[in-house]
Amino acid sequence: MTTNERDVGQGSDQRLSRTNQNLWNAFIGHARAKRLYNAYASKAVLDGYPEVAEAFLRVARDPDIFPVNVLSSADELRSTRENLQSVVDSHTYDVETLYPRIMAEAEAEGRSDVVGRIRLAIERDERDLAIFREALEGAGWGTDTVSVEESPAQAEHFVDEEMARATESIDTARERITALGRIREVIFGMQDGLISTAVLVSSVYAATQDSFVTVVAGLAGGLGGVVSMATGSYLGSQAESEVKLAEIDSATNDFHESRSEVVARLVVLLRNEGLSEDAAVLIAETLAQNERALLNTVIEKELGLSADVDTVPWKDAFAMGASFFLGAAVPIIPYLIAAFNMMPGMVAVWTSIAGTAVGLFLMGAGKTRFTLRNPVTSGLEMLAIGVVSAILGYALGALITFIFDVQV
After folding, report:
1. Which residues contact 389 (CB under 8 A, 6 or more apart)?
2. DSSP secondary structure string for all residues of 141-152
């Protein structure tokens, strides 16, 4: 019951203006139509006309600004705190005054059926009143609440600013996640460049004891690795995008062939996430009003894919190739110095291994800035892999020399 209805029921001298009466009549008529559409939809389902039911539900569930405009014009839409207090006062009056009076009159007339219904109404309103009172007491009201009645332009500007900030935040987050997604290429490329090149140059030097030959072999292997890793990443990313697009196209075709089945699948998915059946149905019906929103949601929840394929193959290829090149340069540099007789050969070997180890540790520790793991643990994990690989590579070269008794 509204505040205006309560005042009339109490015999207040307050009178609505003609315009406000018309606005309230329009509001009540609009609300009544929404209720009727839901009832008509249920009857259409029972009669075997689901497509008619969907039409009723689409209109009934369609959010619009009409009630807000009517209440604002009728001076009934104030600040949130005032609106909530008005509802608490209204329910308190209903429970403590209106319903007991109606029930007493019904008992006097012998209308036991009405008495039972009023008791149910009182129980329902007492439950609702407790919810509203809890919200009123626990909201932690601030001093910057904007009243639509006092400043509609200010409220509209505030909402516009909030929407702009939210949109910017979403766009920035998507760009950041897309960029961070390439950490896979960076880690893979740099780790492979460090380890494979360290193994190669240590093996070649163990077999040849020639720093210059080792540098040539390292550069050849490194440049070949750059080309191989970059092209492999490009083709892999391209194939991934094509697979995603194919799955999205298939889901889109299913959507157009059986929209109701897609809505039903979404209800099941939402219930699997812990929502009640009523909540899942309400969300699914709301999303069903917008084809794109419904399709994107089903694709994301059922296939685990984003409807907007953001993979850029050439960027992935560049990240992979550049990372491999940087990683490969670390173990080669000591042998390059040794080739100009500025460092003994065996010192170059251990410097290369140490540089590779440090590079692996720093890479493992550095990635924790994004993965939020322990930097020491992550760094030591990569360090252990690199050291073992380099030592095994050197031992393999020495073993080949011993078995074949040759110097390559």
Report:
1. 195, 198, 199
2. --S-PPPTTT-H
Tokens of 263: 């809505």
Query: pLDDT averaged over the chain?
Result: 74
209: left (phi over 0), alpha (psi -120 to 50) or beta: left
Cβ neighbours around 90 below 10 Å, total: 20
Output the CA–CA distances (angstroms, integers) from residue 60 to 171, 180, 261, 306, in the order listed: 32, 43, 21, 30
Phi and psi based region of residue 309 (left: phi greater than 0; alpha: psi -120 to 50; beta: remaining): beta
Give the CA radius of gyration of the chain: 36
Tokens at 398, concatenated: 């020495």
Domain-by-domain residue ranges, the chain?
A: 3-138, 179-404
Q: What are phi and psi of 75, to 5 degrees?
A: 60, 35
Query: Which architecture, in CATH terms, is 3-138?
Result: Up-down Bundle (1.20)
- At 254-294, the pLDDT tens digits run 777 777 777 888 888 888 888 787 778 888 888 777 777 77
CB 364 within 8 A of CB 380: yes
